[in-house]
């Protein structure tokens, strides 16, 4: 696939094996008060347990601040699964402070990620991230975090787009990624790709029997133009559309997904997470009074405090509304990630072998995240939600 023109490429990185991916959203499953019984608790048990642990009645894992912590990162850029487009250090990013922050919720402590504990608790089970390249970002991070804990343990990786698997053989634990940027099906009909707002059928084949599913979708719904959107028509309730309001289409697709979750996972031991919308940093006016650049280039520190001055994404309001009343756990990483203007690849999505790098490049990556980096925190919270 050719690189898209810069404006169309804003949300996607189209350079990895010719694949185009996007957003992340995790639905974290319920908490697990009874580990041996596994995976059948309710969200309220989860919430209560965390609150107790935090010695607070108002523990919100996702509200807090970033604290400098030199014990991070948890792994190095030599982890074998990192896409070159996410591997900022190897691509020549000169600063490294962005690797040394820990998320501190205002009302509770987040346990440090323990890869061996993760493997023991997940023994024999499969975790699958489903969605766009932000799900891929989180998937690679989790594989690296676990691998760092068991560097000598045999593993087996396979790639068969759209499915990517990584197995820790001694533990029988698989950590997989299924590329499905809209979650709903896309079918070919008379040579055209039809985005089926009402249907999840083909897509869900790899999701069956998975113990922990973490979904995300969002950014692709706003891509416009045949080349970047991945479909020619949308279908809803038996009618074909050339286009429609994208937020409306997003909600239709997400409700179809919620129905799939309800039909296929309620009453089973499957835990379901949704990864909150991963934010972009293309608009410096959102965090600076006098923007010096046009995007995230040159940003090396997080925003201090707990709030972001820029807008909260409309898609998040849809996500919260759809998830309300389901058993899905929202890994609500939007705001904490909005504070991390420093954590994108920017121009270090490619090897800048001749420094100084071109700081006026017109299409830096201000949507994905460096690895190691921010998605490691998403996984630390995922781990916390999964087992506490
Ligand atoms: C909460 O923590 C404070 C200070 O650490 C302690 O004095 C108090 O007893 C704790 N409360 C509960 C309910 O655990
Ligand atoms: C990566 O580098 C670190 C530090 O140099 C080393 O300890 C570790 O074994 C390496 N890991 C891999 C997978 O090569
Ligand atoms: C997009 O696809 C539609 C349907 O195939 C076609 O009518 C339209 O001309 C295409 N637009 C562009 C910009 O290629
Ligand atoms: C990037 O370029 C430098 C300098 O030529 C080289 O040492 C390094 O191995 C390259 N990195 C990758 C990931 O190719
Ligand atoms: C830097 O990127 C800009 C925009 O893509 C381009 O016009 C310019 O020629 C590049 N400069 C160098 C030194 O490559």
UniProtKB/TrEMBL annotation:
Residues 110-384 form the Trichome birefringence-like C-terminal domain. It is found in: Membrane. Keywords: Membrane, Signal, Signal-anchor, Transmembrane, Transmembrane helix. Residues 58-109 form the Trichome birefringence-like N-terminal domain. Pfam families: PC-Esterase, PMR5N. Residues 1-33 form the signal peptide. GO terms for molecular function: O-acetyltransferase activity. GO terms for cellular component: Golgi apparatus; membrane. It is a single-pass membrane protein. The keyword Protein biosynthesis does not apply. InterPro entries: TBL, TBL_C, TBL_N. The keyword Transport does not apply. Belongs to the PC-esterase family. TBL subfamily. This is Trichome birefringence-like N-terminal domain-containing protein. It comes from Coptis chinensis. The lineage of its organism: Eukaryota, Viridiplantae, Streptophyta, Embryophyta, Tracheophyta.
């Amino acid at each position: 696939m050719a690189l898209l023109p810069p404006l169309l490429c804003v949300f996607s990185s189209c350079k990895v094996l010719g694949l185009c991916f996007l957003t992340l959203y995790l639905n974290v499953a319920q908490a697990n008060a009874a580990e041996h019984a596994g995976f059948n608790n309710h969200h309220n048990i989860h919430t209560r347990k965390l609150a107790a642990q935090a010695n607070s009645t108002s523990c919100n894992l996702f509200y807090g601040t970033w604290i400098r912590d030199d014990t991070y990162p948890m792994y190095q850029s030599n982890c074998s699964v990192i896409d070159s487009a996410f591997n900022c250090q190897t691509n020549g990013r000169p600063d490294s402070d962005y690797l040394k922050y820990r998320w501190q919720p205002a009302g509770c402590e987040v346990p440090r990620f323990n890869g061996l504990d993760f493997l023991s608790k997940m023994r024999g089970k499969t975790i699958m991230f489903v969605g766009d390249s932000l799900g891929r970002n989180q998937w690679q991070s989790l594989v690296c975090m676990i691998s760092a804990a068991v560097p000598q343990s045999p593993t087996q990786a396979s790639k068969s787009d759209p499915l990517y698997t990584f197995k820790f053989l001694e533990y029988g634990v698989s950590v997989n990624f299924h590329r499905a940027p809209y979650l709903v099906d896309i079918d070919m009909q008379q040579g055209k790709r039809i985005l089926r707002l009402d249907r999840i059928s083909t897509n869900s084949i790899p999701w069956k029997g998975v113990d922990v599913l973490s979904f995300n979708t969002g950014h692709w719904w706003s891509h416009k133009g045949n080349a970047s959107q991945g479909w020619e028509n949308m279908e809803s309730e038996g009618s074909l559309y050339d286009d429609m309001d994208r937020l409306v289409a997003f909600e239709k697709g997400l409700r179809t997904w919620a129905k799939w979750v309800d039909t296929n996972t309620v009453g089973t031991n499957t835990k379901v997470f949704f990864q909150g919308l991963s934010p972009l940093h293309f608009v410096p006016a959102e965090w600076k009074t006098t923007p010096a650049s046009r995007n995230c280039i040159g940003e090396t520190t997080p925003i201090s405090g707990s709030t972001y001055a820029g807008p909260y994404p409309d898609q998040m309001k849809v996500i919260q509304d759809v998830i309300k009343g389901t058993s899905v756990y929202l890994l609500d990483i939007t705001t904490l990630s909005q504070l991390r203007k420093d954590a994108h690849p920017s121009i270090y999505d490619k090897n800048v072998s001749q420094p100084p790098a071109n700081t006026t490049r017109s299409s830096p990556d201000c949507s994905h995240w460096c690895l190691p980096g921010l998605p490691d925190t998403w996984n630390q919270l995922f781990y916390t939600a999964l087992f506490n």
